[in-house]
Amino acid sequence: MSNLRSLLVWLVLATGAAAADVEITDPWARATPGAAVNGAVYLSLTNHGADTTIIATASPTAKAASLHGHEMDGDMMRMRALEYIALGEGEAVTFAPGGLHIMLMGLAAPLVEGETLALTLSFADGDTVNVSVPILSVGAIGPGDSHGGHGHHH
What we know:
By secondary structure, the chain is mainly β. It has a single domain, classed as Immunoglobulin-like, CATH 2.60.40.
């Protein structure tokens, strides 16, 4: 995983000023069961620079990819699309099951364990970052499931 993490850091550093300050670690997605047409991507972001905002996501794997969160509606937890995610200076945000995530809608094909999917994050200043996302098992609960729990920060 350290090679992948190094590659991701390099990709971030190679893309421009604001995006260069955002460290992306531990990207992952669950394999999709059966004929599922939607999936989700999780990752951690740490902003080492000035305030920035993620305004869009895209993946060739799906017809649409969007930022999502969960909120309580009465006593029901509901998912909702988010227009953006602001990252303040020094802020860390973790996308995880039951919380923030990137929803992949209209999958072109099932997400298969052991493969990867391409994801692009777009920032308000026009920068983009491409991320290669490993696909873990259908029941995975986090990136530690596939690489023996090597250190990752939250």
